[in-house]
Amino acid sequence: MKANYTAMRRLILLIVTALLLAGLPCAMAAGSFEAVVAVDAMNVYAQAAPHNIVGTLPRGTVVTVQKWSGKAALVSGGGVVGIARVSEMSRVTPSATPTPTQTPAPNQTMVTNQQTRVYRQPRASSRFVTLQAGVSVQVLSVNGNYARVSMNGNVGYMLYSHLSQPAAGGTGAAEQTSIPVVTLVEAQIYENPNYSGQAVTVRKGYKLTLLAVDGEVAMVTRNGMIGYLPVACLKKDGSPAPTEGMSEAKSKHNPFEAGSNEYVIFNFLINDMKLNRAAAMGVMANIYYESGYRPVIDGDGGTSYGICQWHAGRKTNLINWCNENGLDYNTLEGQLKFLQYELPTRYPSVDSYIRQVENTADGAYDAAYYFCFNFEAPANRTAQSTKRGNYARDTLFPKQ
Predict the structure, then answer these.
(1) pLDDT per residue over 56-69, tens digit each?
(2) What is the pTM of this model?
(3) Is the pLDDT of residue 201 over 70?
(4) For 319-342, how does the pLDDT look when each residue is reduced to its tens digit (9 = 90+)?
(5) Domains of the chain, first to last
(6) How many CB atoms lie within 10 A of CB 269?
């Protein structure tokens, strides 16, 4: 009975494959060209019987059509080679392909020539964000079909064929911008331009950077992460954000120079890590003494690195975690997000303590002292902890 079932299953597969591959291989036309997957998921089948599925490619994947006949084509791309349905692909026009034929120089600026995805890892199965056409990125390197790119400190991977050299006048597919904006109302920022996927809620008066506008959809960056919300929710940032009560406004006010490393760090500690002002200043006092707020800095003969001078195995943890999460460990964004992960995961007592300090000058002292003594753990712990506590209380916390 089992043998009959197996034979029947194989016969069905052969019939389906015969319908798909009608006329192959003798009637196949030669001459390769590029095509892009036009459906949400395109199955690719093995060339030899029993023609099992060897891979599934997502919408937007660029493949090379090597031969085709009627309803089927021999394709390669996305790490697979096999047979796919012609009806599930669209031929890439010459104008949509990148103009350079050579690998770009490191950190070369290029522009997306169509809506595309930026993946955390160089594979289509990893998490991604969507970019509209006409967005500038820094190309760090190219390996096969994928380019490693950076945008506002966020590192990821995208299909190299979706990039072109920047041209005068722009691409016309989207209005490219890079201006500071502020939310007019409490709003949600979505992962995808159709307002789907994961979303975060930001308060009225929250500051963002507008990257591109496509119709009524705005693409913005928030602490290095890209998202989408309606254009109607934004206005150009020309004034301070509205106050939300005197105590909260004072707590969230950023007293550092806009655009400076100090400004970015304080903003992350307050808005992403949800620390009060005293705790944030305590952490910043330590970062000041460890690195002067500089992410690219070595210490201890090269065994320590970054804003917190992560040492030896902790430095390795920083590098590995950033690589696994599609971040550049040399950037403020990568290091701050690692700090956000490391504190509650590996130093829960430190995380708990600084979250409970009073939002006062003395609270800033306590946060700086405890963070130094238990997280940084430098030589001469007591003396260093006292020095950093004094700096947080007397210099940083009073900043207006």
Answers:
(1) 887 767 778 888 77
(2) 0.42
(3) yes
(4) 999 999 999 999 999 999 999 999
(5) 2-92 (2.30.30.170), 96-164 (2.30.30.40), 175-236 (2.30.30.40), 246-396 (1.10.530.10)
(6) 24
